[in-house]
Amino acid sequence: MASPWSRAAAPFLLLLLLQLCSWGVALPDQFVDPTCPQQPLPAALAALLPNYGGPVCKPPAPHVPVAVFPYDVDPVQFALNLEYTEAEFFLHGAYGEGLDQIAPVMAMGGPPPVGARKANLDEKTLPVIKEFALQEVGHIRAIKRTVGGIRRPLIDLSADNFARVMDQAFGYVLNPPFDPYVNSLNFLLACYVIPYLGINGYVGTNPIIDGYKTKEAADATEIYACDVCSSWQGCWVWRQGRTRCSGRSSSSAAARPCRRTTSRWAVAEFTDRVSALRNRLGRCGVKDEGLTVPRELGAEGAICTNVLSADKDSLSYARTPAELLGILYLTGDEGKPGGFYPEGANGKIARSFLGN
């Protein structure tokens, strides 16, 4: 006789089976790089790929042989709000088009983003942002394949909204207003505003989910989110930001190229102030750090450089959905939408704070 749990779970498992067979994407031509060499794979590489007759290696057996627990669904689906936001920001910034053009089925009928547009990216930055954009499409597909999807929320990616973030971070209205689409450096500064929160969310989600498939999806995306943060905070800031600001992080030392892009403030000043803003809006202490920190907050209390934001044990900070929403709404209150989600984020968890 089937247990009550198994009977209740049957529709859920059927849904997952259907999801496993969906969400495939064939990219439109404008998203395919025509400069990639059209040549066969080297024989040594082809011999290693399953599609070419190579070995098929199975992953180790999971400790808990359940792919997805019912209670895994809502926390992982909540992450789609941020994945939608990152995907639309990178896609529009790199290509001038978004999910509605590259994979409209993924938006699940949600409204298009507000104010997103193609950024004026230099030849070194553009390929990196294209890569981030297309990888975000894969993250959305992987999450939906694992736990099902939620409608894309209304997302405000306008220059005005990013300007509000920076004004709030600095405590006064910047002149000229901050515009993430005007050049590469500003776009990279804007990247610091959104994707870093993704890793906070996944670190907070991982301990409360148990299915091996849901952990796999969260872990893999979390690693990528960390890679985005390290790429930007470390490599990109040092090469694209600090080198343009005479190699120094002090706002008083900002060179002319830096003034053209970020007024009189250097890159480190922006990251420090944005991090401080997120700590205020998150309302749960220090869970965010910019490029410079007091030595006491540096790795092992010994250094003040800060490529990766982390706690006293150099572990990534975790945030709850309520904390993340307070930050993304720019209200400090998970029940008061605004900021990047004028009508609120979607999914059971986000809507529960709104009473809907």
Task: Describe this structure as you would to a colleague.
The chain is mostly helical and 356 residues long. The protein has 13 helices and no strands. Helix 1 packs antiparallel against helix 5. The chain is globular, with a radius of gyration of 21 Å. The two termini are 38 Å apart. The relative contact order is 0.12.
Q: Roughly what fraction of the amino acids lie in strands?
A: under 5%
Contiguous low-pLDDT stretches (5 residues minimum) are 1-8, 10-22, 229-264
Shape: globular
CA gyration radius, whole angstroms: 21 Å
Series of secondary-structure elements, N-terminal to C-terminal: HHHHHHHHHHHHH
Structural class determined from secondary elements: mainly alpha
Counted beta strands: 0
Tally of helical segments: 13
Mean pLDDT: 80
- N→C terminal distance: 38 Å
Largest sheet: none
- Estimate the helix proportion, in percent: 40-55%
Signal peptide: 1-26
InterPro entries: Pigment-catalase-like (IPR052965)
Keywords: Signal
Protein name: Desiccation-related protein PCC13-62
